[in-house]
Amino acid sequence: MSATTVSLEDNTFTDPRRRAPLVLGSADFATVTDRVAGLVERPRPPLGWYIGFAAAVVWMLVFFGLVGYLFLTGVGVWGNNSPVFWGFPIVNFVFWVGIGHAGTLISAILFLFRQHWRTSINRFAEAMTVFAVVCAGLFPAIHVGRVWLVYWLFPYPNPMGMWPNFRSPLLWDVFAVSTYATVSVLFWYLGMIPDLATLRDRAVTPLRRLLYGLFALGWTGSARHWHVYERAYLFLAALATPLVLSVHSVVSFDFAVSQVPGWHTTIFPPYFVAGAIFSGFAMVVTLMVPARAFFGLKELVTIRHLDNMNKIILATGCMVGYAYAVEFFTAWYSGSRYELFAFVNRALGPYAWAYWTMVACNVVIPQLLWFKYFRTTPWAMWIIAVLVNVGMWFERFVIIITSLTRDYLPSSWGMFMPTWVDLCMLAGSFGLFFTLFLLFCRYLPMVAMAEVKGVLPQAKVHHHAEHEASAAPVGHDVATAPAHGV
Amino acid sequence: MNREAVSISPDDGPQEGGPWLGAAARFAGPAELLAAAQRMNQAGFRRWDCHSPFPIHGLERAMGVRPTILPWLVFAAGLTGALVALLLQWWTNAVAYPFLISGKPLFSLPANIPVIFELTVLFAALTAFFGALLLNGLPRFIQPGTTAASFASVTSDGFFVTVQASDPLFDPARTAAFLRELGAVEVELCPLPKGAAEIPRGVYWALAVIAVSALLPPLFIARARNHTLEAPQEQPRIHIIKDMDFQPKLKTQRISTFFPDRLGMRPPVPGTLPFDPNPAPAIDRGRFETGREGDQFVTEFPIPVDAALMQRGRERYNVFCATCHGLTGEGGMYEGMTARRARARGETLWFPPAALTSQSVREQPVGKIFDTITHGVVREGRHSMPPYAVQIPPRDRWAIILYMLALQRARAPSPDDFGAASRTAASSPTSAPTSPEETRAAEGGTGESSAESSAAPMQGIQS
């Protein structure tokens, strides 16, 4: 295995004669296990984890405390009022759902395209998806007002003899988001079963052995099981790919199917999906840059991974910028004075500061990623990614608030001001997200060990099989992968 | 139990011990495992398996594993999901609870596509996940071969072949020798785990009891919520969350802790004057409030009638009466929304409202109609029409009756209601007005007659 004893080299350079290694350092199967499982098995995590966890838990408690306050008092604690009844809860909902999309994209779409570099980051990104969808699901649920009747959203036989309206995009949203949450959890968990078995087999305390053992479901790495498992994983990837595109399309229908100026456009579905991937990748970078430094994962999550993600941020950022421009063109070309006013009002009206924050963060700043320095320098890309997150939150704010405050009837115009509850709930949702995320970092395998092992050079059977006299015919089938520079 | 596994060296003779669970052989790497799997398959072993920390492509073909049926299951589940979504949307929105929105068709496929798509994905994904577990026989916490000492490395960097003792070709010594011949680094014979390794039977019973008792609360809730004719609920529903049904406000007849006299119902402040822009004239309160004179129903209005009272009656009628009796009071196909909906839903407790313009109602004295509005109608021990004494004050009840008489007159007019020109036309139907003068005269006549007909009910009342 001397071939892979490469030091922490620069693997962002593409040499056509030699495929850049996906994993750096002296990686073999056992070291991958030790590196990843060792993080979970440490008796106590670094001090930074405790500080971060304490801060996150405090904000999570603030969030749930405010939810309790909301229930006892009513939705008047928010700034939502005529004409802006959606306000922060829906802004936050769209923001968090969008964040989730990068996880599914990395795990499903890149899997279908056989992008092996995804193996180091997919578990991380999938976890982010699940936790973001948790945050996203809470906001519309508490936004319904009488939250104890939230099950009325679902079609079920009831003594009132009533059924929901299946032609409403809001109901499509219920189906899309709940399906998305279910499939994301299944996908995440299915991928984690072999790694949970690894933790079970390495467990030293009976409690860990029992808990990891329960969730590993008795996995033994049987070839018969791998055979079915891989098909199931492929199907989930193939199902999740159109699903992730559908979810944000349906979210955009909540706006586009209505007739509010600034919402009623056909560009919304692709524009929302591109924005979702954009914000999601920015969130992955935001989380991954500190995580790989704190947890010593620099050999598994290499600069090349970050470089690739930054390229996707750049591409989707340009798509989003294009969408902003086309919206203005469409408004002008439509000849509708209301549409045109809606967009002029966005750029020059009372919320112009939000609009230009959005444009600066989403369109202007990501252009720095054309330079390799910004794509490969962790602190620089981290700042850019955080600003993209800010920008994408403001995008949803601009879409919802500016369109609702000033639509057709000037006599019905108004202004929206968030209350302290709005702001603390936004911060609190980050607390919830980071609480879940830090628990994940502490107790679950952060990197998909089985998948990373599968892309190590040692995992290829062909050049070992060549000198085996038996030379099984199957050896030829798997010999399609190019030889690594060993 | 791992300690009990027996490690065999090549020199060992026939093994003592047993009974055996099987044998486990560790190989150096994926290529060696692949080669060994090929030979194991050729040797004719049946109950055996390969284990590796990651999937090795081609291994299942080398082992002779047949392709899984999972794709077909997923495909069938996806189709089922699509069908379920389609039927759900069609049945709920077009049949069970028709939703008419902007005059669009009740069942329109394009609007149903998003939900069809989502349920297709949901059903297929759940089947892919649980189908894979089921086909693999998971969860299963004690598996053949897992008792080998070194087997724990299978999820890190170990590559294993396991053979179960139940395989027809299994023989402790010869199988171990064969595995070693295949290039195994290490071969272990695994004894059957002692009873302690089994999950105790009591655990299954406990789980079953918990599962059954978990069903009890929803069953009680379902029973408490079920309200039918056969099993009516005597008690009102339990309100876990009070919504707006119970408000912290003071109602009449309640005790107040705030006022010293503890009366919730406050008397007017001394010196309060009643406010009424149209002070009521002196009227017979008994006739006015009961519609009776002694034990006889009154036949004339106890209050003066005028156009304002007629307007008030029309407005009140449309509020309180039209929902069942319809705007024209004719019943039948003109009955109100509530009656139509009850009929459409096939309500068994529903009596169709009376046609107010029918002969039988027309012949009733006004006092009788007043009495009906006040006390409702009781049929078969139930109110088929509820009493309106609380909602409609007496003056409004008389106003409604006045408007009702107008409706009856409109439905069954007498020839006198049409004025002179109409009478002429009615007596000689062949001589339609031809000259402009005659037409104008006829129009003038109609104008007169409408003025007359609005006054007509009052005549009827006076008579």
Q: Could you characterize the architecture of this molecule?
A:
- The complex is a heterodimer of chains A (486) and B (463).
- Chain A has 486 residues and is mainly alpha-helical.
- Chain A is 66% helix and 1% strand.
- Chain A has helices spanning 29-41, 47-73, 87-112, 122-143, 169-202, 206-216, 223-256, 268-294, 303-334, 337-348, 352-364, 372-376, 378-405, 420-443, 449-455, 462-465, 474-477, and strands at 5-6, 25-26.
- The longest helix of chain A has 34 residues, at 169-202.
- Chain B is of the alpha+beta class and 463 residues long.
- Chain B has 3 domains: 1-194, no CATH class; 208-226 and 236-267, no CATH class; 285-415 and 434-462, Cytochrome Bc1 Complex, Chain D, domain 2.
- Chain B has helices spanning 30-43, 59-63, 70-96, 109-135, 172-181, 201-225, 285-290, 307-325, 337-345, 359-362, 366-375, 394-411, 419-427, 436-462; strands at residues 6-7, 20-27, 48-51, 159-164, 186-191, 292-293, 296-297, 377-379, 382-385.
- In chain B, the strands form 3 sheets. Chain B has a 5-stranded antiparallel sheet.
- In chain B, strand 8 (377-379) and strand 9 form a beta hairpin.
- Chain B is elongated and about 120 Å long.
- At the A-B interface, helix 1, helix 5, helix 7, helix 15 and helix 17 of A face helix 1, strand 3, helix 2, helix 3 and helix 4 of B.
Task: Identify the notable features of this structure and list them briefly.
heterodimer; A: 486 residues; mainly alpha; two-stranded antiparallel ribbon; 17 helices; 66% helix; 1% strand; globular; disordered N terminus; B: 463 residues; alpha+beta; Cytochrome Bc1 Complex, Chain D, domain 2; 3 domains; 5-stranded antiparallel beta sheet; two-stranded antiparallel sheet; 9 strands; 8% strand; elongated; disordered C terminus
